[in-house]
Amino acid sequence: MPRPVWSGAVSFGLVTIPIKVMPATEDHSISFRQIHTADGGRIRYRKVCELEDRELAPEEIGRAYEASKDQLVPIADQELDDLPVPTAKAIDVEAFVEAERLDPIRFGKPYYLQADGAVAAKPYVLLREALQRSDKVAVAKFAWHNRERLGALRVVGDAIVLQVLHWPDEIRSAEGLAPKAVDISDSEVDEAMALMEAIGGTDISQYKDQYREAMEAVIEAKAEGHAPPEMEAPAEPKGRVVDLMAALQDSVRAAKEARGEEAGEAEVHQMPAQKKPKKAAAKKTAKKPPAKKTARKRTAS
Fold first, then answer.
1. What is the DSSP letter of 88?
2. Is residue 6 helix, strand or coil?
3. What is the dihedral of CA 177, 182, 185, 190, to 10 degrees?
4. How confident is the model over 248-274, as a mean pLDDT?
5. Distance between CA 27 and CA 285 in Å, rounded?
6. pLDDT tens readout for residues 63-99
7. What is the DSSP letter of 231?
8. pLDDT-based confidence at residue 13 (cuts at 50, 70, 90)
9. Cβ proximity of 23 and 5 under 8 Å
10. β-sheet bridge partners, residue 96
């Protein structure tokens, strides 16, 4: 297990559970160093005081809040530790709510909570069982890294997980992002649902990071003095779909065939290569009704 990132207690009512907090996830992304492309020399960053023009040791560096362009307000570590925040030493449960009331968009990084010592075992298991049987999560406040945060305590396997939650004002509005009103028929929705059923719900544990694997292969080859392996180019995207319903039906057939089920021959419906977008749509939005009628008559003839 990784090293604890925080130690304290979970508190709800008069119940206190000493715990240690462990990271529940890890990042396997490949990181790079910056180099001078001419000679391969590393680019390093040094922390230099702009008044003394010299590099500083870690113990010489503190923090300050930039109140204005010309004013920095120094803040000492002890001043942060002494803040009168009840969540500074505990994960304080504020409420118990149904899991579906928490929008996943608010979820941040998860952490495992480990019972700290024999005295914590019984209240830890008690809270875990209560959360499981009630199908609820505990909403709690806690203070880490110089800020107060919101979190949800939920059960994963036999462990309690602290899922960091974004504050409501940290979620950006999605207003204006969705398409305007579009006519969708019930039959199109039914066909889309049929496609979802045909694709099925495979075990997501089978998926892997192909980008990272390809990058590791390139790095390994170059480190050994070999030419990077040739990668298979991704398939070109198909043409634009003209008939959405036909595309859905063809997709359902293709998904069934991929699963070894009986299915009819799928057809490909693509936008003709030389066909350009019509400008008639702009005429239809004209404010003069007579102009619309004339345009329709000419098109019909």
1. G
2. strand
3. -20
4. 63
5. 51
6. 999 999 889 999 888 887 777 666 567 899 999 999 9
7. P
8. confident
9. yes
10. 138
Who's near 136: CB < 8 A, 6+ residues apart? Answer: 96, 97, 98, 99
The DSSP H or E segment spanning 129 is helix 121-134
Q: Which amino acid is it at 105?
A: I
In three-state form (DSSP H/G/I as H, E/B as E, the rest C), the secondary structure along 34-74 is CECCCCCCECCCCCEECCCCEECCHHHCCEEEEEECCEEEE
Pair 128, 157: CB distance under 8 Å: no
CB 135 within 8 A of CB 98: yes
Length of the chain: 301
Task: Note the pTM of the prediction, 2 decimals.
Answer: 0.68
Rounded CA-CA distance 208/203 in Å is: 12
Nearest to 91 by CA among 118, 110, 108, 113: 113
Q: CA-to-CA distance for 192 and 265, rounded, in angstroms? A: 18
- Arithmetic mean of pLDDT, 145-168: 93
The tokens 């979802």 sit on which residue? 196
Match 């392996």 to its residue by tokens. Answer: 229
Range 157-171 average pLDDT: 95
Cβ atoms 195, 244 nearer than 8 A? no
* 237-256 average pLDDT score: 72
Residue 27 has what pLDDT? Answer: 86
d(CA 67, CA 75): 12
pLDDT of 250 over the 60 cut: yes
Q: What share of the chain is helix, strand, coil (3-state, %, to 5)?
A: 35, 25, 40
User: CA–CA separation, 245 vs 185, rounded Å?
Assistant: 10
pLDDT, residue 298, reads 42
Cα separation, 160 vs 24, in Å, equals 11
